[in-house]
Amino acid sequence: MASIVSITGQRTRDMLVEVARMLFVQWGKDKTTMNDIANASSKGRRTLYSYFQSKDEIYSAVIEQELHLLDEKLQQVVAQNIPADQKLAEYIFTRLDAVKESITRNGSLKADFFRDIQEVERVRRRFDVKDIQMLQQIFEEGKQNGYFNLHDTELSAQLFHYALRGIEAPYVSNKLSDRMKYNKRFIINAFMRGILVKKDHKHPSMALA
């Protein structure tokens, strides 16, 4: 019985988050009120406040939901049975494209991403930990299989993570995304030249061409 209640509660929470996301997209976070969310969900204020104490809290839940979708996409890349250099190349572009798709799809969240970056940073800390762990897993695979010349895979994962973080904003704002898509070989070289073992194997960028 408890499990049924738990499942029902999770479905209600997910529904409230999705309703809030759509209202944030339509009106923006600032113009959306808790009353708006309660009315649009047909659940009422009492139900809404039993799950979320404030608009900021439900806004954070929306961002967490989007980061969960990003995490799932990246886990699928990590699970692929392909050479580590190709996997890293696919990971880079899957990550950047997924971030851009999420922010663009959510309309006003794109503005909030640049305006309220501290809030976004706070919510995404747990994803950042997972991102570093997934990158380290790829680096460990590549090191063991002779693709990567790395001494410290954990430090390398952290450096790659922050490098990717650094180009998220210009990528999302279209300052880099189109050029990067048409110059994937250059981008992969820029990220991977220092860690690839010098040997004759198919260049990872070829898999993305």
What does this entry look like structurally?
Helix 5 runs antiparallel to helix 8, helix 5 (84-105) packs parallel to helix 9 and helix 8 crosses helix 9 (153-172). The protein has two domains: 1-53, Arc Repressor Mutant, subunit A (Orthogonal Bundle); 55-208, Tetracycline Repressor, domain 2 (Orthogonal Bundle). The protein has helices at residues 2-27, 34-41, 44-51, 55-79, 84-105, 108-115, 117-123, 125-144, 153-172, 177-182, 184-192. The protein is 76% helix and 0% strand. It is built from eleven helices and no strands. By secondary structure, the chain is mainly alpha-helical.
Reported by name, the CATH topology of the largest domain is Tetracycline Repressor, domain 2
Beta-strand share of residues: under 5%
Instruction: Look at the structure and give the mean pLDDT.
Output: 82
CATH superfamily of the largest domain: Tetracycline Repressor, domain 2
Low-confidence parts: 205-209
Global geometry: elongated
Name the CATH class of the largest domain. Answer: Mainly Alpha
Major β-sheet profile: none
Helix content: over 70%
Helical segment tally? 11
